[in-house]
Amino acid sequence: MSQFERPLRVALFTDTYLPQINGVVTSVVNLKRGLEEAGHHVTIVAPKHPQQKPEVGVIRLRSTTYRPQPEQRYAFPPSLRKMLEFRRLKFDIIHTHGLLMPALGLGVGRVLNVPVVMTYHTRIRDYVHYAPFYATMSWLMNDKRWYVRGSRTRTRVSHRLSDSLEHGTQAIAARVDQWICNRNLEIISPAAPMADELVEMGVQTPISVVPNGINLELLAQPRPNPYGKHNIPNGVKRLLTVSRIGKEKSIDLLLERFKLIHTAMPETHLIIVGDGPERKPLEQYTKELGLSNAVTFVGYVANTEVGAYYQHADLFIFASTSETQGMVALEANACSCPVVARAEMGIISCVLDGQTGYLVDPADAQAFAQRSLELLQNETKRLEFATAAKAFAFIEGSHQTMTKRVLEVYERAIGTSKGWSDLSFADAITTARDELIG
Q1: Is residue 1 one of the residues assigned to a domain?
Q2: Pairing, β 69-75 against β 63-66
Q3: pLDDT bracket for residue 80 (50, 70, 90)
Q4: Which residues, at least 6 apart from 239, have a Cβ–Cβ distance to it below 8 Å?
Q5: 355 vs 254: CA distance, rounded Å
Q6: How many distinct structural domains can be found in the chain?
Q7: Would you say residue 423 has pLDDT above 50?
Q8: Which ranges of 216-343 would DSSP assign to H, the alpha helix?
């Protein structure tokens, strides 16, 4: 706190918060913890949730569900009463997290003349399949529709239209990302590859790479084996993945790669912790792959209990390439669980290839299976990787380290905002009034 004259009043605007469990929630909770330990005052601003519990320092905004993501809540813009409450709290800085909250946070910051920074957790273009028009258009252009079948020309046109929809929607999403990022004073990227991609997209706002911290103490606390209650047989090698079950997480590809592993080593079992809109289709796909007896969908697990699943797993496997960081890999490392993942985006910063796990070509399913089998069949090597993984996580995953780096970003943003030439909405109204009176 030495770089500030007094404790900061920080507002963390987030799309998702407890009781939900995901990477953004973990990041926000750990940042709040670190800031408060450093003596600062933190207010969480999040959507209302039907299962929320009263919590001091948390302001909830009216929210609604969204059909393609029924488990997700989206906030409405704050009411006048909430805006007056924000003004009374006199925030020194607003720090936004998520897809929609960055826009709301920018609006609040402009009205109250508060500097705004943003952590870029999520690439919007990886989530375009949740756009309201996208699912309908994809359904209409499916080559199985009656007006497409029976003609090569119709099929080609359908495929071309589908590709155009995909690329066009992603291009629009990238422009939205660029627009939002360029209206913040500072951007925080959890990993260097994502920072590089933002620069390529045309983001001119200063970008700092600050890996998200994890709760090392909670994860490392010894816990009993949880797999017995899920009827997972003893004597099998347990492969774990922890993920929201959505299209962007590539669980279908993970199942295909696990089939290769299971075929070569039948005494393996895959445990999937998490839930989401794709769970039922993926459970059906598991049956189609002939893996019903070798795959268990656990569902959501409380963040206070998830450490047990990491601690008693033999290997953590991950197929998503949409991660801006890949905190679950770091969490697995903290519990001495080696990782095999596809080498793309933020996951690269959470795995030391050949030391704490393996990073493989995203398109090479055989390499993914071979690297997994290499660790599962060689216990000495697996234990060496496990030891290195825990040491790596305790260096890179500390929430204190994250907090120190984030405070440096806040200091720069607050300093920059003092020189702004543009005024807040409230100041603009006051200036216009004075000019009219004058």
Answers
A1: no
A2: antiparallel
A3: very high
A4: 258, 261, 268, 269, 270, 271, 313, 314, 315, 316, 317, 372, 376
A5: 22
A6: 2
A7: no
A8: 216-220, 251-264, 279-288, 306-311, 327-334
Strand partners, 339: 316, 357
Residues 180 and 251 occupy one common structural domain: no
117 against 71, higher pLDDT: 117
59 and 184, same domain (yes or no) = yes
Q: Do both 142 and 235 map to the same domain?
A: no
Asked if pLDDT for residue 431 goes beyond 80, the answer is no
Residues 373-387 have a mean pLDDT of: 97
| pLDDT at residue 138 tops 60 | no
Asked if the structure places residue 4 within a domain, the reply is no
- pLDDT at res. 156: 59
* pLDDT, the chain, mean: 85
Q: Give the Cα separation of 161 and 138 in Å (integer).
A: 9
Place of tokens 């780096």: 405
Q: Which residues contact 29 (CB under 8 A, 6 or more apart)?
A: 18, 215, 303
Q: Are 266 and 380 part of one and the same domain? A: yes
Between 166 and 208, where is the model more confident? 208
Q: What is the mean pLDDT of residues 369-383?
A: 97
Asked if residue 315 is part of any domain, the answer here is yes
3-state secondary structure of 28: helix
Question: Same domain, yes or no, for 242 and 97?
Answer: no
Among positive and negative, which fits the CA dihedral 78, 79, 85, 86? Answer: positive
Residue 362: pLDDT band with limits 50, 70, 90:
very high
Domain of residue 86: give its range.
Answer: 9-213+399-437
What CATH number is attached to the domain comprising 256?
A: 3.40.50.2000
Burial of residue 29, with CB atoms counted within 10 A of its CB: 0-12 exposed, 13-18 middle, 19 or more buried:
buried
Question: Per the confidence metrics, is the pTM higher than 0.90?
Answer: no
| DSSP codes joined into one string, 81-137 | HHHHHHHHHT-SEEEEESSSHHHHHHHHHHHHT--EEEE----GGGGGGGSHHHHHH
Are 30 and 179 part of one and the same domain?
yes
3-state class (DSSP) for residue 218? helix
State what percent of residues in the chain have pLDDT above 90: 57
* pLDDT at residue 152 is higher than 80: no
- Identify the helix (H) or strand (E) that includes residue 368: helix 365-376
Within-domain flag for 113: yes
Question: Beta strand pairing status for 268-273 and 295-299?
Answer: parallel
| 405/325 same-domain check | no
Give the position of tokens 């990302």. 177
Are 124 and 266 members of one domain?
Answer: no
